[in-house]
Amino acid sequence: MSLFSNTSVRIDALPSLQEEEFEGLPLRYRALRMAIFAIVMLLVFAALGVLMWFEWQELNTFRWGVWLALGAAFAFGLMWAIEEVKGFPLRGVVVREHDLSYRSGFFKRETITVPFNRVQHSEIAQGPLARAFSVCTLKLYTAGHSGANLRVPGMDVDRAKRLRQQLDERVSQS
Amino acid sequence: MWIGLSALGNNSMSVSANHNPAEESQPHPAHFPVLRQHPTGVFQYIVNYTWIFIRGFWPILAGAAVSDNIRAYGEWIGFAVLAIACLSALLQYWKFTFQVTEEALVIRRGVLERERITIAFERIQIVNLEQSIWQRAFGVMSVKVDTAGTSGAEVEIAALKVQQAKALKSILSSGGVRDYTEQDNKTSESASNSTQLIALSWSRLFKVGLTQNHLRNALIAFGSVVALAEPLEGLLTDWLSDVPMYTWWLLKFLWVLLIPFFTIGVVVLGMLVSLIGAVLRYYKLQVRVQAEGLELSGGLLKKFEFKIPLHKVQMLEGSSGVLQRLMGFETFRIHQARAQSEAAQGGVSMAIPGLECDHAERLNAILFPPVSGEAEVIRPHKMLLIRMLIFRTVVVAPLWVWGDGWMQIVGCLWGVWLYVGAIKQYHSILLTVYEEQLCMHKGWLRKKHLRTELHKAQRVVLTESWLMRRRSLAHARIYTAAGPVAVRYIPKKTAMKLRDIALYKAEATNRPWM
Question: d(Cα B461, Cα B480) in Å, to the nearest integer?
Fold first, then answer.
């Protein structure tokens, strides 16, 4: 353990996390998200179509509930589409010497930072759909009940593995 | 501490529970004795298993209430359940062994699926001793060990002789440098080098009981009375029919006079419940400061003993209601890192009630030594107030719109109360950032303050919604292992600065944070 030193630091001289430093996720991940969007929308509208068909068979007209469901489905789809289109360029990660940050979201933008020396263990998860697009989810776990973990979905597999290796080295060093 | 860490080397995971069958054939390290619990642990297991069976097979119990067929076999089923519970308890007791090695607690358990759990001493967060009444009759205690790992491994040794339990606790929480067998006769000495910080006397206990939240307690008491009264309904109706008619007739006119009686009754009931609760929970509460950490003990029916190393304290929360402030009291709560699985149950909270000002100061000074230095004060933006007011309006508005005359008046009064509360609450929110510490104040009638150190940060989250972005505001949340410190609606620049400081402190220090 090195000798303890406590030199004063000016707050504006601290290294600051800049918004411009975030690098985006691979475009393959965008394709994956679009695929999920398309599948979900297809299911929703298929269900609505079946409902409307039955209504038409029975009454030859539509009750107001059907119109409401249709409107809600359209609004939901539109919001999600905006979130995807506008939000994807905002998604990104910054890996600095001592921490990792992940930013996401358009309507509600969230930036999560986890220092490497607080990471208890890490995990790379990859579902079947993610495998098809060759992306993976990097998960960092910290201690305690705050559920404080960081999920970075849609990372390039090689990059995630390299990052994880670096992390493991750091954890075993400390 | 540091030597232990480096010696561990590659074994950096806090808990390695592995189900590898090859592990079993591995011999026990020779010079550390393999220990079993006290035989009374079997009782504990029997109780546990019976409870598990009852919970697991409640449909059968429900069936028994309806069907005569099942009821006919009820005794047999009961015997079978008890027999199975006894058998499994015995097996579990037999298969549960533990070993205290130089740097870890090794537990082997499980009947069908053998499990070997190694808990390194440094990874242990809390060691709790608990003793219920029946355990006291046998002179045994149960030891709970929590590691706060993400796997949420919590280990309980159900029964140990008091001497042994105390010795084990002192080893587990000291980082384990001494030998377990040597420790047995040392326990009496270790008590002497600790200084007592707080001891709750009877009069103080009485005051603490009087300053609890009576309204809540009265409601709880009332609720349980109603629940109990359900089966007694038949009795009650019999008794009511005996009441002569003219009493009802009188009641029709004189019910107004009864209101004060009822109010007094409810208040007295609430106070009584709070008093009993306080005595049960905080009887003979003592807080001691030792070299290794803080130690709490107390309890009337169920005794407890907590111990926590100072550097593992994540947060200190003080809260005081109106009554408590009048008495000059404050309740402190010590938060430590907890296993994730326990979050839903609330876990063990270390609450210290009835702290007077000077005691609170001392506790504060021990846990988070005050540093002189410039402090920066952060207050939320007006938008928070506006949002609070809008929410409250939405809650009250239905009364104004659809209510009758007197409903509207009630709505108005309620609205005014809510608005005043919102404004007061808004003005009470205050985050002070010292060089090393964070201090958060909030609350109006029930004041709260949270104190934590900046280098305990594990995760920093900034959130900004679409509306906030236009005013360049953000929420900042700094998570410690015991939970977040959150400030909402602060200028984004301040939030970013806060993040930079917290990250810098967490990354630049090599002081232990949990």
Answer: 12
